[in-house]
Amino acid sequence: MKLYTNKGGSGDRTFLLLHGLGCNGDVWKGLISKINQAKAGKWIAPDLRGHGRSDWAEEYCVGYHANDLAAILNNESNIIVVGHSMGAYIGIILALGIYNLDIKFVLGIGQKTKWLIHEKKKLFEFAEKPVRIFKTKSEALMRYLKVSGLNGIIDVNDPRLDNAIVKNRRGYALAADPKTVLVAGSSIGLFQAASYNNKIRLVCGEYDNVTNLKSLQELDKKAFELRGLSHNAHVENPTVIWNILENLEQEYLLID
């Protein structure tokens, strides 16, 4: 399976940037700019399987996502994982220690920690639906903005949307495979196991409609809220996320 991976920067530290469900690595362009400006190290921003420019697959559980990423991280050191929503979930899997990766800490943004029965049912129903085709590019982009939670945050003409949809003979469709939603699941036990070996900090926007501070603090007692931001805090204000990363580096004694 071909996994599209965007890379850049230089140095002895590697930032692994993991997007959320339905999105792709382009959502990290703002934070990448901050990393480059600070000359803070290398960065890797993949399109996870079934998303963006990467191939679709038969399976999308977090273990498969983690396996894909472990294969491209074996030669990296001082890895700092920044994951949004589903990406945070995958980051926790990578931090379990089973891949023998040199992970220093994980920052999880807007991770959903609990899935109700009716929510899971809706996901299974969505995964079984045929790919939705739109007559115009504009319609497809508007749909993407809605399902990704980026409506009102990114303009429809923003270059970060260039790989969000695809064109085929029938019209336009979202680039993400509908079956990717089946990755959803609880990470409570996984968080506890991963936190024995690695530092994990969870945060969410004040207006996050996917998760909330109370549920995050059930996993991470030091979890905190980002004032004035919503579920896609990393897109809304990458400066805030960069400042958190710098503070965490200080806290975890990663700066020489």
Helix content: 25-40%
Task: Output the radius of gyration.
Answer: 17 Å
Rounded average pLDDT: 93
**Main sheet record:** 7 strands, mixed
List descriptors.
single chain, 256 residues, alpha/beta, Rossmann fold, seven-stranded mixed beta sheet, two-stranded antiparallel ribbon
Characterization of this structure:
The chain is an alpha/beta fold and 256 residues long. The chain has a domain at 5-114 and 185-251: Rossmann fold, CATH 3.40.50. It has 9 helices and 9 strands. The chain has a 7-stranded mixed beta sheet with strand order 1-3-2-4-5-8-9, sandwiched between helices. α1 crosses α9 and α2 (62-73) crosses α3 (86-94). It is globular, with a radius of gyration of 17 Å. The mean pLDDT is 93.
What can be said about this structure in brief?
The chain is α/β, with parallel strands linked by helices and 256 residues long. It has helices spanning 29-38, 62-73, 86-94, 117-127, 137-148, 188-195, 213-217, 233-236, 238-251, and strands at 5-9, 14-18, 42-46, 79-84, 103-109, 165-168, 171-174, 199-205, 224-226.
